[in-house]
Write a structure and sequence with these properties.
The protein is an alpha+beta fold and about 750 residues long. The chain contains 26 helices and 24 strands. The chain folds into 4 domains: about 5-120, STAT transcription factor, N-terminal domain (Transcription Factor, Stat-4); about 135-315, STAT transcription factor, all-alpha domain (Glutathione S-transferase Yfyf (Class Pi), Chain A, domain 2, Up-down Bundle), CATH 1.20.1050.20; about 325-400 and about 415-450, STAT transcription factor, DNA-binding domain (Immunoglobulin-like, Sandwich), CATH 2.60.40.630; about 505-670, 2-Layer Sandwich (SHC Adaptor Protein). It has a 6-stranded mixed sheet. The chain has a 4-stranded antiparallel sheet with strand order 1-3-7-5. The model is unreliable at about 405-415, about 675-685, about 700-720 and about 730-743 (pLDDT under 50).
């Protein structure tokens, strides 16, 4: 079943989440019509490879054209219209930046997988629940409503200022008319009457000036309150959601909404600033005792400028955190002399700023590292599909200074991967007489010099962003705090949903909890230390919990991904639990689990029944990446044989737990049909009989017998039959049997 088909079967609350991230950037109609094709492309790789992204975009447009031809024959007018519109939209938006659509589609597919994983979980995790708090959603709506109201108030005040200008012009005209009269005329009754009118107009002017200043003051106060409270909280929430998304959590949306709010507020403040300038012009033409303009305008202008400074400073954000193109799902881990990308955005989108802001990138000032490559670029509205004012650095690479290289050999791997750094950015905005210096920084990054340090470096990134919302605590690992186990388990499930397409269920998470903390009644409030997660070896093992888990992720990604996505790998189950699950099942029922003693190993255990009715279990020596590179795991399950006491080879694997016929579960993943005895003319080059790998084990009745070394024998069924006719069982055993556990 395709991923899109699974999505369509979700409950309405999950479908609403899916609906949120499909828009004109990547319309849902295309996702639906091209589901199989889209899922068959490597969008993740294309998001960091321009040539590959260009080809995929071209192929996507070809696929849309083919759909257009099909619906044209069906005379589906509405669909024809929509597809033509969508094709034009995709062509226009991504022709100059094909990697952007690869990023969007990759993120959408990843978010679908996360939602599918969340739907399979009985309870929503604590972190995700906090991110989807209804109070937060209500605040977002309130912010948008208040920003709109402020914008309207500023525009209404514009009309009041215009009325004030007209009133003062009339006053000036009447006053100058009286001034031009002869002295004798000024004593007439008519002039005295006109003077009374002028006095009344001056009183009205005074009242209107006070009223306009009062309205301007209220607008400024409302902006101040909004920026100090709700808007600041919204921005902090977005930054927290970005932290969580970086370690595999839900995609963080809301930046476009924040940009709209920031832009409207900036426009309102500049509008108020212009209103104050007009009042200053009116002041130069007319002033009087008790005039409110010289008394109030300076303070109001100072407050407006102060708010503009703060608004611009808060609007300069890192939209996409530093990430190496070679490891898109491991952001904030940077390898020396390897390029990384990072994207910044100014949330105040004003046309006057296009190509006017130059951003400089630097690394923290400890002088251990420097940034090489293009580190100064101009922000513009042309590179982003949504037209935001942004800049993306694509060719930066960190370089270690020679002065510190000599001391590097004294540092252990943990010291390296726990040292946090920061990529800083600075620029200057000059607009309407204002000059504002802006600074921002990335989330803490970890520098590595060798890819072998990547797992521990990523563990540091996970722990930091799980444990704190402080964006710049570079001394965090001097005394790292403990983490709540329930939240850590949720993040570990995200590692699987984001990296290998399927998260962990409650039973799998329970097994991980037991491995981390031993047998505990409840782990909801259990606090786990950083050392226990990543530095201390597991009991009786030569590796840490995190190294063990990372090796499993790598095994799934490279060797058993389709089986994992289908949900056929139970994986995280202890030996004790697997026997409880299998003991009452039909003989030949088996399950797949990850090895607890071998890094990156997977094994299968099946249940059997002895002649006396006793139940016995058999576990094959774990398969690692070396053996799985030679033979696909699905083929191993299909072809696996054991030699019983009577030397009759048979496949003991009948049903995948709980009762799924083996071929029904894995049939679609077999690389080919099992090879039967072949004639030389049927295949094989130059008269040779084709051969296949067959995994074979010998079950020993005497548990004291020595087990033979494990191996995978390249042998066809016909050759094996000939061997049985000419060789003794002992000789065959020496050549082909694998280690196993028999109990």
């Amino acid at each position: 079943m395709s991923q899109w088909s699974q999505v369509q079967q979700l409950e309405i609350k999950f479908l609403e989440q899916v609906d949120q991230f499909y828009d004109d950037n990547f319309p849902m109609e295309i996702r639906h019509l091209l589901a199989q094709w889209i899922e068959g492309q490597d969008w993740e790789a294309a998001s960091n490879n321009e040539a590959m992204a260009t080809i995929l975009l071209q192929n996507l447009l070809i696929q849309v054209d083919e759909q257009l031809d099909r619906v044209s024959q069906e005379k589906n007018l509405l669909l024809i219209h929509n597809l033509k519109r969508i094709r034009k939209l995709l062509q226009g938006k991504y022709h100059g930046n094909p990697m952007h659509i690869a990023v969007i589609i990759s993120n959408c597919l990843r978010e679908e997988r996360r939602i599918l994983a969340a739907a399979s979980m009985p309870v929503q995790g604590p972190l995700e629940k906090s991110l989807q708090n209804s109070v937060v959603s209500e605040r977002q709506r309130n912010v948008e409503h208040k920003v709109s109201a402020i914008k309207n108030s500023a525009q209404m005040t514009d009309q009041d200022v215009k009325y004030l200008e007209d009133l003062q012009e009339e006053f000036d005209f009447r006053y100058k008319t009286i001034q031009s009269l002869e002295q004798s005329d000024k004593n007439s009754a008519l002039i005295k009457q006109e003077m009374l009118v002028l006095q009344a107009m001056l009183n009205t002017l005074d009242y209107k000036r006070k009223e306009v200043l009062s309205k301007i003051g209220r607008v400024i106060h409302e902006i101040d309150m909004l920026m100090s409270n709700m808007l600041t909280e919204e921005l902090l929430d977005w930054k927290r959601r970005q932290q969580i998304a970086c370690i595999g959590g839900p995609l963080h949306g809301g930046l476009d909404q924040l940009q709209n709010c920031f832009t409207l507020l900036a426009e309102s403040l500049f509008q108020v600033r212009r209103q104050l300038e007009k009042l200053d012009e009116l002041l130069t033409r007319l002033t009087y005792d008790g005039d409110p303009i010289p008394l109030q305008r300076p303070q109001l202008l100072e407050k407006v400028n102060f708010l503009l400074y703060n608004l611009f400073r808060n609007s300069f954000v890192v939209e996409r955190q530093p990430c190496m193109p070679t490891h898109p799902q491991r952001p904030m881990v940077l390898k020396t002399l390897i390029q990384f990308t990072v994207k910044l955005r100014l949330l105040i989108k004003l046309p006057e700023l296009n190509y006017q802001i130059r951003v400089k990138a630097t690394i923290d000032n400890n002088r251990r590292f420097v940034l090489c490559g293009t580190h100064v670029k101009a922000m513009n509205m042309d590179e982003s599909a949504n037209g935001s004012l942004s800049v993306e650095f694509r060719h930066l690479q960190p370089k270690e200074m020679k002065s510190s290289a000599g001391s590097k050999g004294n540092e252990g791997p943990h010291m390296v991967t726990e040292e946090l750094h920061s990529i800083s950015f600075e620029t200057q905005v000059c607009l309407y007489g204002l000059t504002i210096n802006l600074e921002t920084s990335s989330l803490p990054v970890v520098m590595i010099s060798n890819v072998s340090q990547l797992p521990n470096a990523w563990a540091s990134i996970i722990w930091y962003n799980l444990s704190t919302n402080d964006p710049q605590n570079l001394s965090f690992f001097n005394n790292p705090p403990a983490a709540t186990l329930s939240q850590l388990l949720e993040v570990l499930s995200w590692q699987f949903s984001s990296y290998v397409g399927r998260g962990l269920n409650s039973e799998q998470l329970n097994m991980l909890a037991e491995k981390l903390m031993g047998q505990q009644v409840s782990y909801n409030d259990y606090q786990l230390s950083w050392a226990k997660f990543c530095k201390e070896h597991l009991p009786g093992k030569s590796f840490t919990f995190w190294v063990w888990l990372e090796a499993i992720l790598d095994l799934i990604k490279k060797h058993i991904l389709p089986l994992w996505i289908d949900g056929y790998v139970m994986g995280f189950v202890s030996k004790e639990k697997e026997r409880i699950l299998l003991k009452d099942k039909t003989p030949g029922t088996f399950l797949l689990r990850f090895s607890e003693s071998n890094l990156g190993g997977i094994t299968f255990t099946w249940v059997d029944q002895l002649e006396n009715g006793d139940v016995t279990f058999h576990s094959v020596e774990p398969y690692n990446k070396g053996r799985l590179s030679a033979l696909p795991f699905a083929d191993i399950l299909r072809d696996y044989k054991v030699i019983m006491a009577d030397n009759v080879p048979e496949n003991p694997l009948k049903y995948l737990y709980p009762d799924i016929p083996k071929d029904k579960a894995f049939g679609k993943h077999y690389s080919c049909q099992p090879n039967e005895v072949s004639k030389p003319s049927d295949g094989g080059g130059k008269g040779y009989v084709p051969s296949v790998f067959i995994p074979v084990s010998k079950i020993l009745n005497d548990s004291t017998d020595q087990h033979s070394p494990s191996d995978l024998l390249p042998m066809s069924p016909s050759v094996y039959a000939v061997l049985r006719e000419h060789l003794s069982p002992t000789v065959i055993e020496t050549a082909v049997c694998c280690k196993f556990v028999h109990s």
